[in-house]
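Late entry, evening session. Most of the bench is empty. Finally got around to the prediction I had been postponing all week. Sequence below, unchanged from the version circulated by S.P.
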Amino acid sequence: MRTPDLSALSIQLQSLQDTICAALAAADGGAPFVEDAAGAPGATFSRSRFRAEGPVIERAAVHFTHARGPALPAAASLRHPDAAGQPFEAVSISLIVHPRNPRAPTTHMNLRAFVAGPRWWVGGGADLTPHIGFDADAVHWHRALRAGLEPLGDGLYPRLKAACDDYFFLPHRNESRGIGGTFFDDWDEGGPAACTALLLATGESFLPAYLPILRARAAEEATAAERERQLLRRGRYVEFNLLYDRGTLYGLQSGRRVESVLASLPPRVAFARPAADDADESAFLARYRRPWDWAGGPPPAAP
């Protein structure tokens, strides 16, 4: 049975990590990310990169891991019982960017591939969480992700967009975490080459989708009230990661450093309850925390 070439993919994802870190560092004053590497190629190897308290980025983490082990953590094997207890190999890259300016959105991306006993699969995607809504940003984000996937098939983006809307949802709040993006999991369609192409296309779409938004919004003047809303909406982000995100649980179960796993959490956050008569909050939730086909254009203006 053919499986993805994780050794080759490992090299490609590390190159992607280099490219993304260089671009984000340039947008944030130029200082490089701080790197924390552990292990060695041929064994379990991780290369975690962080930055904090920059002029543009309040916190960012871009992690690469090439893991090998005697058995998958429960968070991964629960959905693949035939792979439970089997030796496994996995490669992944995950990133989070929490900008300083509340007018710039938070973003997250994850790419991963597993081989465990008789099974293999890939997963990942990219999503955007605005704190102050801008239709132009939402349209640009989704159109850039769609353009990156178009060479792989016309019907792929709508499927992955719908899966993202479904996954990044807070049922206890009855609202989406953000405006979505793309998401795929337990994916083996088309065989190893097609799945590797999907991972790399998603990763290569990230900078064209996010960097123009970050650069433009980071230069704008923000108010104290917008900062308060940013901290409040970051609270929703924390709730999702700690209550529902399978990647967080996998990272903790796999024995990775807790600080690396939780690096995706924002450095400052608030959990205050919005006032019941907060019209701005209600309008934001109605427009930016409900699924919409942003690649097709913004929704109609509220009456």
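Two things to note before I forget:
The longest helix spans residues 192-218.
The longest strand covers residues 57-69.
Will write this up properly tomorrow.
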